[in-house]
Amino acid sequence: MTRLAVPKTYKLYIGGKFPRSESGRVYEIRSHGGGFLANAAQASRKDARDAVVAARSALGGWAGATAYNRGQVLYRIAELLEGRRVQFIDEIVQTEGVTPNAASAQVDEAIDRWVWYAGWADKYVQVAGNANPVSGPYFNISVPEPTGVVAIIAPQSGGSLLGLVSAVAPALVAGNTVVVVANETMPLSAVSLGEVLATSDVPGGVVNILTGSPAEMAPWLASHADVNAIDLVGAGDLDWVNLQIDAAETLTRVLQPENGPDAASPSLARIVAFTETKTIWHTKGLI
Amino acid sequence: MTFLDYAPAPESQAVLHLRPDYGLFINGDFVPGRGVPFQTINPATEKPIAMIAHANTADVDTAVAAARRAYDRTWSKLSGSDRGKYLFRIARLVQERARELAVAETLDNGKPIKESRDVDVPLVAAWFFYYAGWADKLDHAGVGPTPSSRGVAAQVIPWNFPLLMLAWKIAPALAAGNTVVLKPAETTSLTALLFAEILQQADLPAGVVNIVTGGRETGQALVGHPDVNLVAFTGSTGAGRAIARSVAGTDKKVILELGGKAANIVFDDAPIDQAVEGIVNGIFFNQGHVCCAGSRLLVQESIHDEVIDRLKQRLSTLRLGDPLDKNTDIGAINSADQLRRIRELTAIGEQEGGERWSPACVLPDSGFWFAPTIFTNVSTSHRIAREEVFGPVLSVLTFRTPAEAIAKANNTPYGLSAGIWTEKGSRILAVADKLRAGVIWANTFNRFDPASPFGGYKESGYGREGGRHGLASYLKPAAGRSAARTVATAPAESSPELDAKAPVSRKKAAK
């Protein structure tokens, strides 16, 4: 006799907690073969707003953490993901219908991406900032700082875990906090990633994961006055031009959709895209 | 006149040889515009200076086509060192004709000659000199090896620093290998047209820089033109928002330098004499027509009365009047429209309970004038503490603790600049860290330098001008390198190794 499995309830990840959607809605997640897998929470605009509030509250602590500390926390995500490889491979195989080898390769790449970005946390400032030789008795320096709350529409095609990690990790490096809308039809690994984050020393609210319809939530995030930047990397199939127009209302920084296998490919530019350059003039006294 | 008064010391206009009318500068020549020409006037006297051509949509098309042709056939094929040499030439010509440019700027804009002569024009030359040297060193600009130019840049500039804003825009654009169509502000086209003459003297290839004069619709036609690759705009947040909307869905790179409502924070241990000078410079420099002006004074409660007393004394010594007079501190307001807006907001400031004060000050009979004004007893919800007045009007607020100062300073949708006055170094560093603004001056204010990036957080815009970061705005990574595509932020502009990539994933042995 086989043991009866205990299926998991897949919920949202907001402010370090795992709530259901306030709307009470769920939607069916089916395997690649069409079988029922789970009822994922279908987040509403209020959930999206709650996630922005959580991200804003977490910003001071995360942006204010030392770069060394942020690097270690991001590296810790890789460690815990490594320990849960089997679970992620299993979910990817079921939802994406790929071979276990392909799923394994995707998980490996996602882990390595965390490691790569973790290493940037205490280095990117040295590369993206510099001292400026101004003509006068001033010490003048330009440093990049996090832009603030970043909303992300995760890639909706390609590897569901890798796409999510590729979009979220670079935004975290500089100290931004994130509200991400996961792959709509394949959100299971996103919810499971939330469980990894919750146990990885990532403070609650630094990453908030919403499952449901990007088309429904994206307009609220794009027009939200407390969202400082929006990454439309996975919004290629949405009415993204209007999202960009909405974002202009408060001069929200916009990254346009990317398509194909290179979408959100790892780069320093992706880190710097979510920073603002601050230039400080310090008067040098005459001695 | 007592022995302490100053005799008039007007700068001579003899150095200036203006034409009665100016055409558009397209493809290396002055050509008539197809719109209705308009007069540019001296805001200090309301007397006409010259007639300026008005570019309509067809003229903008012609200018963009000239810039495209020059880009394809000439400028993009030139070596970096040759582009640099043209920019060095321009820098030298600006220096040679500095006095003439300063007089023209003061006539057309209304700013004191001592500012146009000692700040604006020297910085214009410095800007070209700085970026000239970058033209053959683009590999080090921060967007990876062998970056490319973007193409045709559409640039729209404001009236507060007409020639200086032109230099901020044109110098990095040309150094990076782009060609330019620039639209000066309607009320201050004059020095841009004198600059066009300088370009002829420099023998800059035709079409590399085109200048189209006109009103708002000229600027809209330029910014919305389908054949421009980059839009650089300095002006109001409202206009910047409209530009951000209009480029949605395109791959135009956008640089926006918009409004500000800077906090100038004075702690109780500040060097008071220097702080008072800094406050005055922060808000009364250029009649307060400065996007990064220190328009909100945040003064620690314990020294409020002392600072305000000294500030009032100092303001009483400022001389307002003929901008061409070498002793003038406060010149004319640039236009009747702007004067109306300043009057409107200051009237609201009084209605909302601010206490208004201006020094005894005789305003000339003709022209547009506004006495330096401070409002005390202002709270953060007052409109004069929230909206950009863009005039010589200072709102004074108080605070008790550094945390309160930071909270009040950041309590604005803008984030362009801020000032910190304290003798305590660690406090400067801690406060500077927490201010959400792109430029922070510690124990100084309103300093500008071509080597120093300038630009805002939040609704003050995005992108940087000046320094390496300002150059990178005008470049894109070499083709085939995937850098995050971005329209809005200035990512592209910040790092010497933007093309740094993670190693492509290796397949691991199954575990």
Automatic annotation (TrEMBL), chain A:
Source domain of life: Bacteria
SUPFAM superfamilies cross-referenced by the UniProt entry: ALDH-like
Domain Aldehyde dehydrogenase: 29-235
Transmembrane segments: none
Keywords: Oxidoreductase
Gene3D superfamilies xref list: Aldehyde Dehydrogenase, Chain A, domain 1 (3.40.605.10)
Pfam families per record: Aldedh
GO molecular function: oxidoreductase activity
PANTHER family: ALDEHYDE DEHYDROGENASE-RELATED
Name this protein carries in UniProt: Aldehyde dehydrogenase family protein
Organism: Cryobacterium fucosi
TrEMBL record, chain B:
Pfam families given in the database record: Aldedh (PF00171)
Molecular function per GO: oxidoreductase activity, acting on the aldehyde or oxo group of donors, NAD or NADP as acceptor
The Aldehyde dehydrogenase domain, residue ranges: 37-476
Key word Oxidoreductase present: yes
Top-level taxon of the source organism: Bacteria
InterPro entries xrefs: Ald_DH/histidinol_DH, Ald_DH_C, Ald_DH_CS_GLU, Ald_DH_N, Aldehyde_DH_dom
Keywords for this protein: Oxidoreductase
Active site: residue positions: E257
PANTHER family (alphabetical): ALDEHYDE DEHYDROGENASE-RELATED (PTHR11699)
UniProt family annotation: Belongs to the aldehyde dehydrogenase family.
Protein name: Aldehyde dehydrogenase family protein
Organism name: Cryobacterium fucosi
